[in-house]
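TICKET: design request
STATUS: open
ATTACHED STRUCTURE:
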C-alpha cells in the first residue's frame, strides 16, 4: 500500500511540475524572481506538502517557528538533510524566499531544470573545486541583498536516519565571512520519505527551528560544530 501511495504521489507531483514550469517560464520575461517565488513557487511547495498528507498520510508538526527571523532580515539556513522532502518545507515555510545551491548540471534536466535555472538559484560546477566555492562566495551576498535566504545542507548529501556524517564548513564559512546569522533547522523526514525510495511511510514529520546563531567575527569551524551539535542533539529529542 505504501508503494502504491508513493507511485500515486509521484504521478500527481509530475503533473504539478509541468504546471509549475509553464507558470514560471511564461512569467519570466515580465515578473521578478521574488514575485514568481511568492506567487508560484511557494504555493506549489505547500501544495506538494498537502499532497503528501492526503495521498501518503504524512503530516507535519513544526516547533520553534518563533525562532525564525523576520523576512526583511538576512539569514543563512543550515538544515538537516535526510530526504528529498527537505527543500519543499524550506520553499513553503521560510519567511523569506529560499535560495539553494545546486549542481549546474541540473539545468539540463528537462522541465525541472529549466524551472530551477529560471529562478536564478546558485548554480555551481563542483568539478571546479575551489573556484566553484569562490563563485558562491561572490554571488551569495548578492542574493542576500535581493532578499533571499541562502539555504544549504551542511551534511552535503542525504543521510538516512541512524547514520551520521561530518558536517561541511562551507555554509558557516559563507555566513562568517558575510557576517550573516545562521538559522539551524532539524527534522526527521527520513522516516516517512526514505532516501532512494518510492514508497512513503505514513506518520508525522517533526521540524524544529533552533535559536539564531551569530557568526560575525567567529571561526567557521567553531560555528559548524555549534550547528552540528544543536541539530544532532535536537534530532535525538524529536526521535525519542
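STATUS: resolved
RESOLUTION: sequence designed for all positions
ATTACHED SEQUENCE:
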Amino acid at each position: 500500500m505504501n508503494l502504491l501511495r508513493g507511485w500515486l504521489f509521484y504521478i500527481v507531483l509530475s503533473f504539478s511540475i509541468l504546471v509549475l514550469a509553464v507558470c514560471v517560464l511564461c512569467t519570466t520575461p515580465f515578473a521578478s524572481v521574488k514575485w514568481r517565488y511568492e506567487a508560484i513557487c511557494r504555493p506549489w511547495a505547500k501544495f506538494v506538502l498537502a499532497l503528501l498528507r492526503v495521498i501518503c498520510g504524512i503530516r507535519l508538526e513544526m516547533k520553534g517557528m518563533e525562532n525564525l527571523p523576520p523576512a526583511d532580515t538576512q539569514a543563512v539556513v543550515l538544515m538537516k538533510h535526510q530526504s528529498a522532502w527537505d527543500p519543499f518545507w524550506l520553499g513553503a515555510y521560510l519567511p523569506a524566499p529560499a535560495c539553494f545551491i545546486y549542481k549546474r548540471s541540473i539545468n539540463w534536466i528537462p522541465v525541472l531544470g529549466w524551472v530551477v535555472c529560471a529562478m536564478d538559484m546558485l548554480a555551481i560546477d563542483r568539478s571546479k573545486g575551489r573556484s566553484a566555492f569562490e563563485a558562491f562566495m561572490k554571488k551569495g551576498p548578492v542574493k542576500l541583498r535581493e532578499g533571499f535566504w541562502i539555504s544549504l545542507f551542511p551534511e552535503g548529501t542525504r543521510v538516512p536516519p541512524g547514520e551520521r556524517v561530518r558536517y561541511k564548513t562551507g555554509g558557516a564559512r559563507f555566513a562568517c565571512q558575510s557576517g550573516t546569522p545562521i538559522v539551524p533547522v532539524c527534522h526527521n523526514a527520513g522516516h516517512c520519505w526514505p532516501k532512494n525510495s518510492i514508497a512513503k511511510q505514513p506518520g508525522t514529520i517533526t521540524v524544529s527551528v533552533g535559536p539564531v546563531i551569530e557568526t560575525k567575527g567567529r571561526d567557521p569551524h567553531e560555528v559548524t560544530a555549534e550547528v552540528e551539535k544543536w541539530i544532532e542533539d535536537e534530532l535525538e529529542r524529536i526521535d525519542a
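CLOSING REMARK: Strands lie at 58-63, 76-79, 98-103, 122-124, 149-152, 182-187, 203-209. The CA atoms of residues 15 and 21 lie 10 Å apart.
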